[in-house]
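I had to read the description of the data format several times before I understood it. In essence, backbone conformation is discretised, so a fold becomes a row of integers matching the chain in length. I therefore recommend that a typical entry be quoted early in the introduction. For illustration, here is how one protein appears when written out as sequence plus structure tokens.

***
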Amino acid sequence: MTRDDLFNINAGIVKSLCTAIAKYCPNAIVNMISNPVNSTVPIAAEVFKKAGTYDESKLCGVTTLDVVRAKTFYAGKARFRLLMLMSLLSAAMLATPASNASLSHEDIKALTKRTQDGGTEVVEAKAGKGSATLSMAYAGAVFADACLKGLNGVPDIVECSYVQSSITELPFFASKVRLGKNGVEEVLGLGPLSDYEKEGLENLKPELKSSIEKGIKFAKEN
């Protein structure tokens, strides 16, 4: 199933659900996990703006599955516990770990692609009889738990999320965020990037821009 297929199925569902959220629980922290998140988060934002309830700190695109996959694949390849990882939606980027272990450029390229194609790998392993539902559920639970910890005042809760952001020229972007009692309390920067990561960042921008615009257009026209 392509991202366009997912959009056609989920866009209307997300719009309807967010309309209800705006009416019945306008102060809720919304964790958007419906794909394609690059488009469904902008849809949600437009619905909330129209209802007068939009709060950028309370709308989070869940990108945790990319992080979980990248951590798992990286640790398996490097044969040690991952110490540092950064994942960007649509182009997971593996930072150099703070340890003696290192991976070649070719290894990092292969792991990046495997992270991007993780869902397809699961579908193929199941011979088309299922999808990555369990890993998605786990990722959603991890991020929801982080939000609950933040709401309960646990300090220094940092996760990756796709949120309204000024890190790039795009209105939404995935990066590390600090979660607290009001949802996203701080959008953290990307930190130093390798040349490979810089290239990946620039390459993903046109597709991400198009996905954002597609979501906004849908919300305004439907």
User: Anything to note?
Assistant: The beta strands are 30-32, 59-62, 157-164, 172-180, 183-187.
